[in-house]
Amino acid sequence: xxxxxxxxxxxxxxxxxxxxxxxxxxxxxxxxxxxxxxxxxxxxxxxxxxxxxxxxxxxxxxxxxxxxxxxxxxxxxxxxxxxxxxxxxxxxxxxxxxxxxxxxxxxxxxx
Amino acid sequence: xxxxxxxxxxxxxxxxxxxxxxxxxxxxxxxxxxxxxxxxxxxxxxxxxxxxxxxxxxxxxxxxxxxxxxxxxxxxxxxxxxxxxxxxxxxxxxxxxxxxxxxxxxxxxxxxxx
Lengths: 111, 114
Prior knowledge:
Chain A is an all-beta fold.
């Protein structure tokens, strides 16, 4: 079966750095995605990792270790607007439709 | 219109009603998806259409019936639903065979079954 674990909730202070972890056990692996979802809105794409290492995109970075089945999303210089749910998803097949999502991590940024 | 649109945004229906959800993508993609999002549960993939053919049907009850008349439009027909079907239904699209497997999501339809 497919299993993706991430913390349910996290709280961090405005201006700080927060790391959201994701571990996965899937039957196959063809890449890992991070999505951001504000309450009542659609998920929006943040990052995609298919090779080990760190991908940096502005204030957001994502890391992948395939041997450990582990990824994290790093958010720097937190802003109030970063309060949202962050969804980790694994592509376990050759086609993009085989995405398995975690339950999401609700991040609250406080002043 | 840009991106992925869904109508209606909110829907309240009784268990004996029949209704349809509509999704339209303006991105030129060739694959479309229906997901169900319930509170405290992961996004659940329901159906996938690639090049207008259904390629995935994750043991979804027959009271949910998808339809994909062309690569830009996707429908989810609903009939005799149960209260536990109340959820946010999200549509997404992507380009199969492209360099990125990113899926683009619509804003969702919030469905309440009474």
